[in-house]
Every structure is written in C-alpha cells, then in structure tokens.
Write a structure and sequence with these properties.
mainly alpha, Four Helix Bundle (Hemerythrin (Met), subunit A), two-stranded antiparallel sheet, 58% helix
C-alpha cells in the first residue's frame, strides 16, 4: 500500500482529470486573462511532477522532454495543445508513480540533493506542495470552464472517503 500522502496526491490528480474531462482541444487553448489556458495548466502540472519526482530523485531526463520545448516560463505564456499536454502528463505521472510506489516514511523526511545542493523542503513537504498545487489549478480550471459556459461540471471533492480516506501514516 502506498504512503497516505501518495494516496492523497493520486486522488488530487484524479480530481484534476475529472475536472477537465471532456474539455475540447479548442477550449483547452483559450486563455481568459489573467489565467493561462487549460493546455498550459496541464503541461505546467506535468512539469512540476517531472522535476520533483522524475528528474531530481530518479535522474531521468528522458520522460517529458517535450515540456522543455514548450517553455512554460515564457512571457507571454506558451499554449501547448491540450491532447499533447495530457499525453506528456500521463507519461510523467506514470514515471513519478514508479518513485512513489516504494516511498517510505523515512524517505518522506529526507531532502533531495539537486546539482550538489540540498533542497530546503523535505520529500514529504514537496509532496504536499504538489497536492496543494493540483487543488489550486483544479479550482482555477473549474472557473475557466464556468467562464467558457460549460455546464454539468463535476462537484468536488469527489469520492474522497472511498478513494483516499484518512488513515494513519505508514
């Protein structure tokens, strides 16, 4: 069984996906200022997971290399195609899950070393940062969808009690 925080991350991811289910390629490219497009948001989340969970702890620079080409820090923001952003997101999260599957309570307290420098935040804190980041962008994406006139949007927070209920630490 995965660490409880990993379960919470996986639940936050599933709610992010549920929020964005059915968004068309066209709507995924619309930018309602000051917010970024939904395509950018999916790529942005993939990029965070790539660095935090694939590159830094696993040393894997091959997964999600497309994110580099999209230059997610550019001004004005890039606008990756939604379908391509989801494809990269899927590959990155699958690679991240390989790291998460063996994560122990002791490892949650460790600090990753990146380019010889120890990260200020522990693995557990980085995991919390990622979870909260998903919730931020899930809310923002829901607001974008409302502004676009989408109806029958999902209500949150889904099946938390079934999919990611509270349980004591591992």
């Amino acid at each position: 069984m995965a660490h409880p925080l990993v379960e919470q991350l996986r639940f936050a991811r599933s709610e992010f996906q549920r929020c964005l289910a059915g968004v068309s390629e066209e709507d995924g490219a619309i930018r309602l200022l000051p917010m970024n497009s939904i395509g950018w948001t999916v790529a942005h989340m993939a990029n965070q997971e790539r660095w935090f969970w694939v590159v830094w702890p696993q040393g894997n620079m091959e997964v999600g290399v497309e994110l580099d080409a999209w230059d997610l820090r550019s001004k004005p923001p890039s606008n990756p195609p939604l379908s391509e952003a989801w494809a990269v997101w899927g590959a990155v999260t699958a690679a991240a899950d390989r790291y998460f599957d063996g994560l122990t309570e002791e490892q949650m307290q460790e600090h990753l070393v990146v380019d010889g420098d120890t990260r200020a935040e522990s693995v557990g804190t980085l995991l919390l940062r990622t979870i909260y980041h998903y919730w931020y962008h899930t809310g923002e994406a829901n607001a974008i969808r409302q502004q676009l006139g989408h109806t029958d949007l999902p209500e949150f927070v889904g099946k938390l009690g079934i999919e990611a209920p509270y349980r004591p630490g591992a």
